[in-house]
Structure formats: structure tokens, C-alpha cells
Amino acid sequence: MNRLSITVVLGLLALGCAQLSVRQPECDSPEAEEAALAAQEYLNGQHTHGYKYALNRIEDIKILTKVDEDDIYVVEVDLLETYCHVLDPTPVANCTVRPKRLTAVEGDCDVVLKRVGGVLTVTAFKCKTEESTEDLCLGCPALLPLNDTGALNFVHTSLATFNNNTVNQTFSLLEVGRLSTQILSGGPRYLAEYVIAEANCTNDVCVPLNDVTASRGICTAHDLGAAHTVDCKMFAILAPPQDANSTGLSRTLPTVHVHTQNMTRKHGLRHHKLTSLHDPHVTGLLSSESASESAEVVSVATPAALNATAAVPTADTSSASVSAEVPLAVVKRDTSATATDPVPLMPRCPGKVRFF
Question: What DSSP designation does 203 have?
Fold first, then answer.
């Protein structure tokens, strides 16, 4: 690109973002909490298998404001898996977070929201879900792949026990939530969590009922060696919509989601992951998961700032760090502190840790 072209581009960028401002509220501020909880609700709504996730910490938040346009919120949140399955209507606020000793699962998500008509709406997100390996104790239950042959056999055995003790109803396996093993005296023992649904059985073949009034719940089974225990908690049945125009949550069951022994080790997942991404390149604002530790995304608000960034080596414009909607630039963060730098009394971010 010749010098004239560069000058024209910089001039257009300066005009486009002259009215752009960026606010960085504290991570524990009410508006940050509002955005984080909206992100939590939306992400759980996209998560069709496994367990609900609860907000653990707000890592960062930026609010981009431009005249005559909707405010854009860019928030980074840390989420933790709870005991509540996604089919359980229990609000996330009332769900218990799974402790570290039982292998906690963490979701690190970058979420972009817009405030439209006073309501925050998610436009894009990117999530990474991983097991927490901190504070795992010797002898604590260890996660198994969801397609572990021995554990799946135990699931079916314990479900048969439950069905034999249930009158007038037969239940079918809908989804395996967790499979664990624990070394005790006498050898390894299985622990299993799985979701069941009321089934229609013909000639010993049972199919889960896809009906709003069908019973469903989650079972926890413990292998005791020669015996086992199984306890199933049935979910509350949601009332059907009053009319066809109702905008309530889906009242139908998801498809059966059981990992089988025939799946490859690559698909032998040990936990259910959050949906990984949704339109991450539309806004160009989802950069924290992919950006290097030595760079940060900042808003360019003046021609002087644009001229300052012109000296920076050309960034890859295909990266998610470059916005198609809001002009952004990647600049090096100065990590060297001097004796004259003011010491903040309290960091703006990250916010408080709610669980661990």
C-alpha cells in the first residue's frame, strides 16, 4: 500500500471513531454484574447437554459507546459446573457448584453483548471448558471417559434396579452426565450420574417419551462391589405454553445423548463442554482467548492515537483482534513499572471470587 493510501485509510479510521469511547467499570460494579449474569443465562441456554454453569468471577469488562448506536459490552467470565443438569428447571442461583475434590469443571468465556432497548443481548461468544486439576486428593473419585465400557455397564445395571423398584413406569437412559472411579478397599468402585426419561417400551425396546408431561430426572449410582445403590431425583414438570405464540423455553426433550463403547478415544470426553463459540469473528471483539499475553486490544479514539499505532508492526487483519464494526488496534503493553507509577489502592479487575 502506498503512502497516499495509508493516509486515506488513517483519515477514514479517525473520522469513524472520533465519537467512540470506551469505559472500563470495576468488575464488581452493578453493570458488570448485570452483563455477566446475562452472559451466564445465555450460555446455559445454549448448553443442551450436561450441567448448568454458575458465575465464579468476572475477569474483565469493557463498554464501547458510540453516538446513535447501541452500547457494546465485552466481558470475560469464569464459570463453574454445578450439580444441576440443563434439564433441571432449578435456577442457577440455587444450584450447588461441584467441589474441586470431585474434579471441578471450569468454563472461561469471552462474551459480546449489546444493550438494545435497555436489555442486554448476546451477539457472540467464545468458550473454553477444562477440568480443574488443582487440589485433587489421593483417593478422591477420578473422572472416566463417558464411553468407558465398565462404567456404562454399571449404568445400565443400576438403571435396571431402579426400574424394577418403580411401579407403573419404565425409564430409559437419556444421557450420561458423569462417570467416575474411586479406589477403595476391595478394588475400584464406580460412581455414575445419568439422566433418565419416562419411556415407551415394546418387546423390551424402550424409547424415551418426547412429551411435555413425561417424567424425567437425574440418577446417582454408587458401586458397592457385590451390591450398589441408585437414587433418582425427578425434575419438576414444566407447564406447557398457554398458546402457540408463547416464547417460553423448549418443552421437548433433547435427543438421546449417550456415548457408546464404539466411539474412538478422541471422542471419549470426560465431561460435557460448553458450546465453544458462536459468531466469534462477526464483531472482532473476542480476542482475549487468542491474543498473546504481551498485547491487549484498545480502542483508537483520536488521530493522534492512530498515528502512534502506525509505528507498530502490521497486525494480521484476519485475527479476531481486529474489529469490522469498531476500529481497533493491537499495541504492545508496557509491563515495566517505574518508581513514579501510582500504586492503585484496589485493582479494577478481576472481580471477587465467588466459590474458588
Answer: T
What is the C-alpha to C-alpha distance for residues 185 and 109, in angstroms, rounded to an integer? 41
Beta bridge partners of 78: 57, 108
Residue by residue, pLDDT tens for the chain (356 residues) are: 555 444 434 444 444 555 789 999 999 999 999 999 999 999 999 988 999 999 999 999 999 998 888 999 999 999 999 999 999 999 999 999 999 988 999 999 999 999 998 999 999 999 999 998 776 777 788 999 999 999 999 999 999 999 999 998 999 999 999 999 998 877 789 999 999 999 999 888 888 888 888 899 999 999 998 899 999 999 987 655 454 444 334 444 555 555 554 444 444 689 999 989 888 777 778 765 433 332 333 332 333 332 333 333 333 433 333 333 333 333 334 445 455 555 555 689 999 999 99
What DSSP designation does 315 have?
P
Spatial CB neighbours of 63, under 8 Å, sequence gap ≥ 6: 22, 23, 24, 25, 31, 71, 72, 73, 74
Burial (CB count within 10 angstroms: exposed 0-12, middle 13-18, buried 19+), residue 31: middle
What stretches of the chain show up as alpha helix (H) in DSSP? 3-16, 30-46, 149-164, 303-309
| CB neighbourhood size of 346 (10 A) | 6
The span from the CA of 213 to the CA of 247, in Å, is 19
Cis? peptide before 350, omega within 30° of 0: yes
Instruction: Determine the Cα–Cα distance for residues 161 and 6; give it in Å rounded to an integer.
Output: 73
Amino acid at 59: E
Q: Which domains does the chain have, with CATH numbers?
A: 3-134+274-332 (3.10.450.10), 145-267 (3.10.450.10)
Report whether 152 contacts 268 (CB < 8 A).
no
- Is 294:332 a contact under the CB 8 Å cutoff? yes
CA distance 356 to 79: 11
Stated pTM of the model: 0.74
CB 65 within 8 A of CB 17: no
